[in-house]
Write a structure and sequence with these properties.
194 residues; mainly alpha; 7 helices; disordered N terminus; binds fe (ii) ion
Length: 194
């Protein structure tokens, strides 16, 4: 029987985008906004734990890409990946500090990291696929952080302002990846609406 065959076929990285976006929204759709301050803090910490996981995965993915990128013209791309890895690490630290300020314990546990994250570690082997993976991850992050900024609004301006700063960098990252893709593949890459 060929039952097991279908499960061993490598999934193209694009197929998980819907799932990742669903995951990114989980905590927002969960639970109505509570009136009590305590309730908000608890939910804020939960949301920020998933942001933290997202940033950690981004650090790991860009770092891996910075090491693994090979080929003609890869040097400037490697530098870009490395710069992004450092900036994602800054985000990681900011979010972890904020969780701590809110009375939470920032979760750096590698166990379950991928399922807490709204971005993917990826499996790209070519330079162009790496750039595409990063572009997708950045676009999900941009979308996710815009929603979170609307969520925090005036309820927690400190967290909101932090996320606005992070969002600005993620938008730059997405632009950088888009430009690299055009330079290396010659065509703009636009994923579908889901
Ligand atoms: Fe980031
Ligand atoms: Fe980013």
């Amino acid at each position: 029987m060929s039952d097991h065959m279908s499960t061993t076929v490598a999934k193209p990285f694009l197929t998980d985008v819907t799932e990742l976006r669903k995951r990114a929204r989980e905590h927002l759709e969960n639970g109505a906004v509570t009136k009590s301050y305590q309730g908000d803090v608890k939910q804020a910490i939960e949301i920020l734990q998933s942001v933290l996981a997202t940033e950690i995965v981004c650090v790991l993915r860009y770092t891996q890409h910075a090491i693994a990128a090979v080929g003609i013209d890869s040097e400037s791309v490697k530098d870009e990946f490395l710069t992004h890895a450092r900036e994602e690490q800054e985000h990681m630290m900011m979010v972890a500090e904020r969780i701590n300020q809110l009375g939470g314990d920032p979760n750096f546990d590698p166990k379950g990291l991928a399922t807490r994250s709204a971005s993917e570690y990826g499996s790209a082997e070519t330079l162009v696929d790496m750039i595409k993976e990063n572009l997708i991850a950045e676009r999900i992050a941009v979308e996710h952080y815009r929603e979170l900024i609307r969520y925090f609004a005036d309820k927690d301006p400190t967290t909101r302002v932090m996320l606005e700063g992070i969002l600005a960098t993620e938008e730059e990252h997405a632009n950088d990846m888009h430009d690299l893709l055009v330079a290396h593949e010659g065509t703009p890459f636009l994923p579908g609406p889901n």
